[in-house]
Design goal:
Znf_FYVE, Znf_RING/FYVE/PHD, three-stranded antiparallel beta sheet, Znf_FYVE_PHD, elongated, RING-type domain-containing protein, two-stranded antiparallel ribbon, single chain, Herpes Virus-1, zinc ion binding, 502 residues
């Protein structure tokens, strides 16, 4: 309803109709205090105010223009279809259009597709945009539902306890359809009109060899030929109707005329005969019911091999991986594989990734070995320095002892000179550690600005900064998802690009 623009049109005031004591839509009884009745200006029946809370335009009598009038919830749906254009009718479901054609008894000369129904509806309208009076009168007389006649409608506080004396009479039955029966090339597009099926029923004046088809009434079962005596069955009082697919098939030959024995072979349905045989022979072997195939859940996709596994994998095994696995490996390691069409190119990309990772690890291993060697050398130098200081301290203590024992002035002077020489040879204080540069300096040097240890090989596509290593990029995507330099938002891992340095 939200796609429809404007308010539907009414052709004019409805004819006077019998008004009941309850709403035809919700079944609430009318009273003068809490639930007053209001007439629908399309079908003419009485409803409560909640069920007539819809509006349509009716031409004013004696002057130009239109006025807003109330209509019921039944009529507003069909008035909206009447006011719709051809483009809006194409957006509506086919069942809704077929129901509209049926309730207004619109004659359809040919309806094969949905566009044929729409053309028929557009041709049925007058120049005013409304349907002819005979269609609207048919709708008022036969198609307006009446829920007030059911015995289970809610009763209000002021409702009468006894039965109502002015209950409207039941609507008359619909007249037999005059439309041709075989105009629709496709039966699934034919309008559904169950009340008209009596018109196609069996008529006794037809000869037996020309039976009339019955579409919805199940045909009676023909008499069976005598059978040999069977064991007594316990389910004789129960009858089993034929399956639904045997009832709804129009080409099924009818059995309404009951041909004489020997004239025609009796028509037997396989499903019905099988069930009858099973009922007559309880000891027969029962066929187990066919179990419905459960929708197998899709198997979980195995994770792609890690870089550690790829480093130990020979090139032949790497080439035997599937295309999906190769693409997953490249995506996990932030390598762009969008324009690759051949599997050989994917394998080459993965091989380049593995070679670069192997070189990085060898370089990292060499750096670690160099750092370990430097650390050992530094410890050795520190140990030698410590021994030298310790030795000089012992010498100074020995000189002080000799001076305390009353050595002569020359010895004292010499020891003093030695002490001054020892003081001058004292090691200089260690230099303060070299401060690390800023993030921009580290970016220019090629180191990761986060850990400042590994080489930066992950670039951010949105801002263009090459500032992170692979390990730190995983930490950033798991936490802030921002560039460590400019704080640009990283939406997905696809915005990270691995850079290979040659």
């Amino acid at each position: 309803m939200s796609e429809i623009r404007g308010i539907p049109l009414l052709s004019g005031p409805p004819p006077p109709m019998d008004s009941g004591d309850a709403c035809r839509k919700c079944g609430k009884e009318f009273n003068v205090i809490l639930n007053r009745s209001r007439k629908c200006n399309h079908c003419g029946y009485s409803y409560c105010h909640n069920c007539t809370d819809y509006q349509a335009l009716m031409p004013r009598s004696g002057q130009d223009g239109h006025g807003l009038m109330n209509v019921c919830g039944f009529c507003i749906e069909f008035l909206t279809i009447t006011a719709s254009g051809k483009g809006q009718l194409k957006t509506m479901p086919l069942s809704k259009l077929k129901k509209y054609v049926e309730v207004y008894n619109i004659k359809m000369q040919r309806a094969v597709e949905k566009d044929d129904l729409i053309d028929g509806i557009m041709e049925a309208k007058k120049w005013t945009g409304c349907l002819p009076p005979e269609n609207e009168n048919y709708y008022r007389k036969y198609s307006v539902p009446d829920k007030s006649g059911s015995g289970t409608r809610p009763r209000g506080f002021f409702s009468r306890s006894g039965p109502s004396s002015n209950t409207p009479p039941a609507p008359p039955p619909r007249p037999p359809s005059q439309r041709p029966t075989n105009n629709f090339a496709r039966p699934d597009l034919a309008p559904d009109n169950p009340p008209y099926q009596q018109h196609y029923g069996y008529t006794p004046q037809y000869p037996p060899h020309h039976p009339q088809p019955q579409y919805h009434t199940p045909p009676p079962v023909p008499p069976r030929p005598p059978r040999p005596p069977q064991p007594p069955r316990q389910s004789q009082p129960y009858s089993y109707p034929p399956p639904p697919h045997a009832q709804s098939n129009p080409p099924t030959p009818p059995q309404a005329t009951r041909p004489q024995h020997g004239a025609y072979p009796p028509y037997q349905r396989p499903s019905a005969s099988r069930s009858t045989e099973n009922l007559r022979n309880p000891n027969a072997r029962q066929t187990p019911p066919r179990t419905r195939a459960a929708s197998a859940a899709p198997p979980a996709t195995p994770p792609p091999p890690s870089l550690d596994e790829l480093l130990d994998m020979p090139p032949e095994a790497m080439a035997s991986l599937s295309i999906g696995t190769l693409k997953a490996i490249l995506f996990t390691n932030h390598v762009n594989a969008g324009m690759i069409l051949e599997k050989g190119e994917l394998v080459g990309k993965v091989q380049v990734l593995v070679d670069a990772e192997r070189r990085d690890r060898e370089r990292q291993r060499a750096l670690e070995q160099q750092e370990e060697a430097e650390r050992i050398e530094q410890q050795r130098v520190q140990m030698e320095e410590y021994k030298r200081i310790q030795r000089e301290r012992e010498e100074r203590i020995a000189a002080e002892k000799r001076r305390a024992q009353g050595q002569d002035a020359e010895d004292t002077r010499k020891s003093t000179d030695d002490g001054e020489a020892g003081t001058s040879d004292a090691p200089a204080p260690p230099l303060p550690p070299k401060t690390r540069g800023t993030a921009s300096d580290l970016e220019r040097t090629g180191l990761c600005v986060i850990c400042q240890d590994d080489e930066a090989n992950i670039a951010i596509v949105d801002c263009g900064h090459l500032a992170m290593c692979r390990g730190c990029s995983d930490l950033v995507m798991a936490s802030s998802k921002e560039c460590p330099l400019c704080r640009t938002r990283i939406v997905t891992e696809a915005r990270l690009l691995r850079i290979f340095k040659t």
